[in-house]
Structures are given as structure tokens and as C-alpha cells.
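pipeline/complex-builder :: batch 7 item 3
reading input block
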Amino acid sequence: MNSDNKNDIAQRGGVSSLRMLETNLCGVRLKNPLISASGTFGFGMEYDRLYDVSCWGALTLKGLTLKPRAGNPPRRMVETASGMLNSVGLQNPGVDCFIRDDLPRIAEKGVPIIANVSGFSEEEYVAVIRRLADTSVDLIELNISCPNVHCGGTHFATSPESVGEITKAVRAHCRQPLIVKLSPNVTDISAVAMAAEENGADGISLINTLSGMAVDLDKRTPILANVTGGLSGPAIKPVALRMVWQASRTVKIPVVGMGGIMTGRDVAEFMTAGAKAVMIGTANFIDPMSGPRILREFEEYLEESGTTSLASLIGSLKV
Amino acid sequence: MIDQIATVASNRLIAKDTVEMELRLENETRPLPGQFAHIEAKGVFLRRPISVAGYADGLLRVIIQRVGKGSYALSEMQEGETTRVLAPLGNPFPTTPPPGGDGPLWIVGGGIGVAPLLYLGKKLSETVGASREIRSFLGFREPSLVFGADELGGAGEVELATGGLVTDLPERALAKETPSVIFTCGPTGMLRAVQKICAAHNILAYASLEEHMGCGVGACLVCSCKVRTQSGYEYKRVCYDGPVFSLSEVIFG
């Protein structure tokens, strides 16, 4: 085969597989189902110094609150077996500063933007979401499950009733499609997923980090200044897969799966379990080129397995 | 900044539990003194941020003290083994030209914190060594841990403390001269003492800080340090806003 033929085939293969990767997430077209996970990708431009971040299907940015937040004192992170615990404590410049300084830069990349919204009260969530209404943000991800802040966050995520209430309150003011990010720190993920759907969520994403802690045995103190933190990385992948599977069997709205995805095959596993798209977080720290690498691996998997559409993969788990 | 494969070109023990390695980089990378590399280590999950101790002809020099699983795994890498290196990261020491007038340049280092100061000393010696006095004060917990003293001797006079407080040395030297700037790296207790000296004598100082890191590129906000602002304080990212900070603005916990 001469090199012209090879190029020809590569091009044709490339074009068809590109179209095949397209997905529609709550009315927003993504060119592929890979999304950066909130809190691991800054405001998007940090990794753009390394590669063109518009290769992602969408970017979820660092969680936003109404007012700037300094975050938790250090130490904020500890490595664990196949994972890490973090307790950043929602450090962010506040939604107004984000809209003025950070959003214009990342919006130029032309990749769909998901703003992650946190709050300590219903009013705060609503206020942040109203400020984002007329911006170029494409989707809202509601963080009701950040386990790091003492006075808020966790209680919204822990019961179907409170998830339903906050979803309903926010939905009424949200111009963009609304994805509710669920916490794994619950007894019945299906009930929580259903509460989000019944109260107007356009999609759900899961799982946020698992609450955990680490001990300094020499000092007999917690290693994290905040005592507890959120566990992420491959350590939580089995829990995440189980919950994505359970939630996706319960709701009709799109499920975005995440938790320890490191490879293209991991992406395929989450989609098989029922995820329409996936979020990739901690992997970026291990391999800063994770975005383009995992996308390439996922395309290779689709080709090798003879998968001809994402639809035929999503929820194809035989139980 | 580029993520690339690096091959161990040499590995030798230079002090107790302290290994000097040269990593051959595939792609041209020009790290400056104070910058660091995020290096993959076998058997641990996250990369390890390691300061650049030197660079020449595609060889990245790092000095690693075995303190935990990650640094131990890195120190065990033998010639020919490969790993992945993201570099150069962070902001360098201000050296072109060094700020603070034309007085002496002091280097204060403690323990493994001496590693980036070796590269700094070389750079200062090459650029302003003819016109500026360079004086180094190095401290180690015990004599078996000493490294780099001879090398910094090439840049100027070196005073060495083994066991006691290294900061006693610059404190004494202040009776004779006042530096226009101090560059420092080492344990927090030492940095706090240097900060106190600099405040008392109104000396400009730059410190390279260390913190447990996730991404290394400013995206994850886990490697924070407390820094003074007009209205109080804020947490800055050691990896991206640092690791070199103006010492007077750092608030040590």
C-alpha cells in the first residue's frame, strides 16, 4: 500500500469515527463524550498550555460560589492506595470574578462549558445561577455533594427530599440545562437520582468523591487540616460503576459517569453501565495528557470492538 | 512546559539517603533555577515534584532524598530506565538580573532544599559572579547528609552548619555585611527564621516553597500556601504562583 492510500484511509476513518463520537447532552452537542471533571481542571486554561483543550467534548470548570472563598488551610491533599484525598474547600474567586476574568478566555476555545455551582443555601445557589444565565456557559452542574464544607453542601445531597427541594428551587431560575451532581455518600443512590429527575434535573452526574480520612500515626493526628476529605481516583471506580449502573436503570434523563476513569476502556465500561457521557478528573494529575490520550484509546476500543455507535454501547451491560 | 519520556543517564549516591540523577530528556527543555519537574515514580499514584538542580545539554539533574515511598522509588531508578517528566514548571528565582541593587547575594539552604540552590549558584556565578559577591550558608542535620558545599564553593564562599541552626551563620555574618538579596530553600522552620532575619534587617528575600502536589500546573488547588494580601491573606498555588515567592509575603502556619 502506498502512502497516499494510507492517508486516504486514515482520513476517511477519522471523519467517520469523529461523527460517531458526537453526542447530545441535555440539548448541547458534544463532539465526543469526554468531559473534564470539576475541580481537577481549573478554569480550563491551565492545561491549554500543554495541549489544545478544545479536544474535550466539554469542560467542567472549578466550582463557583457567590462570594470569593479562600478555601481550607493546608494540608489539603494526601495520596492513598490508587487514589487521593482532597479537601480544597471550594476555593474560588466568586462567580462575578469568574464571569469577568476567566470565562471570556476559556469561551474563546469554542468548547462547551459546564459551570459547577456550589452554595450554602438555596438562595446562594439561585443567586449564582441567575448570574450565569446570560453568559456563554452552556450547562450548569449543581454541586450538592461537596463533602468538604462544614456548614453546607453535604446536607443537600444526603436525602432524596433535600435533593428534590434544591433541584426544584434552582430549576425555576436556571436558563441552561441543569445537571445535578450526586454524592456517593448516601444509602440509596436510585432514590436520590429519581428525586433529581422528578424535580426537573435535565441530567445527573455521579459520583462525586467518597468521604474519607487519613491518619498520621506518628503524630496521632488527621493528615488533612480539614480532618476529612474526598477520595478520588481508581480506588473508587468499582463504587462509581455500581452507582452509575443503578442510577441509569432508575432515571430516563442522561447520566454522566465518573470516578477513577484512567483509560479509554474505563470510558467504555462506564458507558456500558449506562453513562451517556463521562467525566475525567484525577487522571489529569497522573498523566497531564489524559484528555487526548483517553479519547484516542476510546476511539481505538470502539474500532477494535466493532462498536458502530455510542447508542449501541450505552447501557449495553448484560446482567 | 512539555510532558515527555526521560531516561536515567546516571544515578549516584552523593550523601546519606541522597541520590543525584541525570535524566536525559527527549525534547529540548530549558528549566531555570527555582523551577521544578513533575516526575512519575513507580509504585505510587501521584507524580512527585522535584526541584531542578541543574540542566545542560538535554540532561536534567535532580537530587532526591529518600523520605517516603515516592522519593525512594525515584532514587532506585537505574541507568537506562525511563519515566515521564512534566517540565519545566513554576516560576524561577529572579536572576536576570538579581534584584536589590549591587550588594552581595546570599544563598541560605537547608537539607534537601540545597538542591535548587546549586543550580541557582551556578547561574548567578555565570551571570553576575564577576561583579557581585555570592555567599552561601548551608545547613544539614548531620555531616553524613552534606552535599553541594564544594559545588557552591565555585560561586563564592560557603559556610556550613551540621547539627546547629544554619540561620545562626547569616545572623553572625550580618555584623560584617548586609546582602542586597537572600535566596533560600529548606525546611519551614528555617524559612521562618530567615524571614525574621530579613524583616529585622530589611533585606529582600526569595524562597522556594514545597507542598504536596496534585496536578503541578495550577489546576487542582491542593498545594496551597498562605500569602499576605492587602485585605488579609489568600491561598496561592505553590506549583503555579510559586514555588518561588517573595519571602516577606508568605505566612507560615
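note: The mean pLDDT of chain A is 92.
queue -> next item
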